[in-house]
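Reply to dn_fold:

You asked what the input looked like. This is it:
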Amino acid sequence: MKRAVVLLSGGIDSTTTLAIAIAEGYETYALSFYYGQRHQIETEAARRVADSLGAKELRVANIDLRIFGGSALTSDADVPKKRLETEIAHGIPITYVPARNTVFLAYALAWAEVIGASDIFLGVNAIDYSGYPDCRPEFIEAFETLANLGTKAGVEGKRFQIHTPLIKFSKAEIIRKAVELDVDLSVTHSCYDPTLEGFACGECDSCLLRLKGFREAGIEDPIRYAKK
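and this is what came back:
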């Protein structure tokens, strides 16, 4: 069976991407991170997702991006709330974590090389995204080139491929795809600033994009919100 490393945050996009990789016949090795983000709910959700979908293995890498800060997710800066769709769609928000996907993909590449996998799956999309530069197709193509130039496996002729099956999907289309693949969306988590009880805030950009996606898909969001 082909092996693939799948970056898994526990959100809808990465969860659906894991389900797609499994449906395509890959033995999946899920990789999540505790990188100094505001809470550990994300990694708890990733573990629930990996268990529910039947990933071969889940590893959580501990790194500390708080030493650099530069983001509301890795510093004490406030997470933006109640922003309009036009605001969310404009510019790069303070929830962008500098070079995060570059760091995550580097870890995924290292693990892929160790286990003999040629394929890495990443749940980015370039339509309903919050202005993050490391979610664009140009970035993915550049990293794939790097992967094949900068590894022992690549130099010896192995071809790494970065898969982004959701890159052109809207959030509503991603949700419909998850339902089609029988994904349990109740175990996912998207919120940047959850309550102490673990409820989604319902007001950050990620919550607003998630709720918009469910509305447009005509499906009820199964998770609990503090405000909705």
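The chain has a mean pLDDT of 94.
Hope that clears it up.
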